[in-house]
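Task 17 of the worksheet. Students: predict the tertiary structure of the chain below and write it out as structure tokens. Keep your answer in the requested format; marks are given for formatting as well as content.
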Amino acid sequence: LSALSLLVSGTHVLASAPRLRRSAPLAPLAPPAQARIIVNPTAGGGRGASAMRELAATASWLTEHGLVAELCPTTAPGGARILAAEAVRAGMRMVIAAGGDGTINEVVQELAGHTAALGVLPIGTVNVWAREMNIPLSLTEARKVLIEGLHRRIDLGRAGSRYFLMFAGIGIDAEAARRVEHRWLKRVGLKLLDYVALGGFLGLTQRPARVWVRVEGRRRATHAVQIVVGNTRLWGGTFAFTPNAFVDDGWLDVVFVGGHHVIHRVAVILRALLRLPTRGSGVRYERVRTLCLESETPLGVEVDGELHGYLPMTFSIMPNALTVVLPHNAPADLFIRQPITSTS
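Model answer:
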């Protein structure tokens, strides 16, 4: 009897025990980001809200096409550089600058010497890099380059401690860049118009400055209204002051514009606008690996369109320093080396 009671009692205990609930299946973990889109919300003359919506859609589109992407807006000056450094440390394979040439330049500071590739979504005012490399100015077309484009390894220039992708300018353009930063037209999205107008005025009125040039241990003096130290060819997206430059040859192309007479300056500008192979009289063109410039009076230095500092300064080339993602129709005559690989 006692055994039977124990059996019944045990059965009751088992029957009355709470049933274990089946746990809900765990949601799959999202794959880690392979690309980071860094956006300057103020780029492009106030397109902030609409640009952010387009970029969020772009990040989703890239993810759907096999490149898991995250969108990271900057919140303060220098923010693009911080976000790019984080992406490099995280081992991401692409860092995408969404903005103008200033945003691209900030990102480049942290990609130099690393394997992470620079992608570009041009939403800036001028977009010189995009125009020179035939990157579409439409986001729906530019995003395709990030999936289907070519990877190329290129050089970077260096002005003092700062890398530049395209060029450094001393003289008229640096002074125009300095003045534009403090004028009201920038705040209403008319920075480019103001810059061109100021550059034209200074081009006609600026006096040549005395500059000392040191190349390979030799020092000489010259007078110049403008000096362009180029890694690429287009200045301002339109003018070819360094028409013989290659972006991957290990050299900087330097142009000294004397311009004692206004007519000579106008001729130089016209020849650069027409992208003729020579710059005309009063111009010296040379190719260097390292260049040191000093001046009697303070002369500003702009790097990829942004004021960087003042002479004296040393300019140098960092060969094979950066991987970039470019369309298949990027100008072939800018390169001497073959692409690394296709992204597709």
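Marker's comment: DSSP finds eleven helices and 19 strands in the chain. The CA atoms of residues 175 and 185 lie 16 Å apart.
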